[in-house]
Amino acid sequence: MLDIKEALGKIYTYVEPSMKEAGMTGVRPDGLEKGEIPVVKGDNGIGYRFDFKGEASAVAVKHFDNKLTFELSTTVDGDGNFTDYKEISVSLLDAETSDDKDIRSISGEISDTVMSKFCKPTSQPKVKAPKTVSKAAARSGGVYYDANTLASRLTSSLYPQFRTEYNANINRYGEFLPEDFFAKGCADAIQDTIRRNDPTEMKKLFSLLNEIYPDATNETQSIIVVTLLGNLGADQTLLANCVDYMCDDLMGPVIKVNKFLHSKAGKSAREKLKNPPIYKPKRVKRPGIMERMMGAAQQNSTINK
Q1: What is the distance between the alpha carbons of residues 214 and 287, in angstroms, rounded to a whole number?
Q2: Chain CA centroid to CA 2, Å
Q3: Reduced to 3 states, what is the DSSP secondary structure of residue 235?
Q4: How far is residue 268's CA from residue 275's CA, in Å, rounded to a whole number?
Q5: N- to C-terminal Cα distance for the chain?
Q6: How many Cβ atoms sit within 10 Å of the Cβ of residue 179?
Q7: For each of the chain's 305 residues, which pLDDT tens digit applies?
Q8: Rounded-to-integer distance, Cα 273 and Cα 131, Å
Q9: Rg of the Cα atoms in the chain
Q10: Count of beta carbons in the 10 Å neighbourhood of residue 72
Q11: How far apart are CA 14 and CA 107, in angstroms?
Q12: Sign of CA dihedral 268, 61, 114, 21
């Protein structure tokens, strides 16, 4: 069963970067411990809520009676308090039936709404998409298929509805981040294809996966076997649907991974798949003391010339 307070904590964490970009920070009531996510009891002690506020806008996310409401205010009274909150959306978040997919969907909806309302598009050019690996290059043995090539091929030929998210992923992070992209629906779309078991669709899907898997990087092979095809073991019918379409190189790892993930020993790994790590920008390496001293010496030398 889903822990609602914990679920709201995840939503808070997922939407916080968008809120900061929109000029809002989390409201931290007194009494919270350092590092504790500010999900608190709701109005009159009923349900739970969390809030973000800025100079010109405020957001309230509340949960009560299996419903999560997202409210927004841009009205400030004479005392500087935000009033006249408007209900933007209502989502079902039932402790007995909801899962992490629902949490991510709700988080994405909140973030997208805030970004569209308060974050103006910059004049900076879009990030150029990384180059994909061609079939000829992969077969030559000089390079291997990478995760970006897998996503590009899937979204250009089989799942064009995710092409916009693929491009947005690259622009958002300045590189292609596969964990974020595949968690936003593409993996689910592949499972839907397998569930329908239409011969034409299955041949197209596995023709692509069979081509890429043997000549792919370790990361890309893991994405195919674990992220895209690792949930088939929950329903043996789905796994059986794939057997006649998978090449030998792919079939063995897929069967082994599904057997492990859907055993008692694989419970922890399944939880990690449901909750991939949140993106953290690469740390910019700061110059050490020796580098700073050498830089200062060079600058002084230039000045004295």
Answers
A1: 42
A2: 20
A3: coil
A4: 11
A5: 73
A6: 13
A7: 778 999 999 999 888 888 988 899 999 988 888 888 999 999 888 999 999 999 999 999 999 999 999 999 999 888 889 999 999 999 999 888 888 778 888 888 888 888 888 876 544 556 788 899 998 899 888 899 999 999 999 998 888 888 888 888 888 778 898 988 887 778 888 988 999 999 999 999 999 999 999 999 999 999 999 989 988 877 889 999 999 999 999 999 999 988 888 777 766 665 555 555 544 444 444 444 445 444 555 555 554 54
A8: 27
A9: 24
A10: 21
A11: 6
A12: negative
Token digits of residue 7: 């679920």
Burial class (CB in 10 A: 0-12, 13-18, 19+), 79: exposed
> How many other C-beta atoms are found inside a 10 Å radius of the C-beta of residue 272?
10
CB 219 within 8 A of CB 259: no
Give bridge partners of residue 40 from the DSSP assignment: 49
Which amino acid type is present at position 144? Y
198 contacts 154 by C-beta, under 8 angstroms: no
Q: Which residues contact 88 (CB under 8 A, 6 or more apart)?
A: 70, 71, 72, 113
Q: What is the DSSP letter of 80?
A: S
Instruction: Kindly state the tokens that stand for 114.
Output: 């805030």
- Structure tokens that stand for 70 in this block: 């997202």
Q: Which amino acid is at 76?
A: V
Query: CA 120, CA 38: separation in Å to the nearest integer?
Result: 28
Residues 247 and 171: beta-carbon distance below 8 Å? no
Helices (H), the chain: 4-21, 100-118, 135-140, 147-153, 163-173, 178-181, 187-196, 199-212, 218-222, 236-243, 248-261, 267-274, 289-304
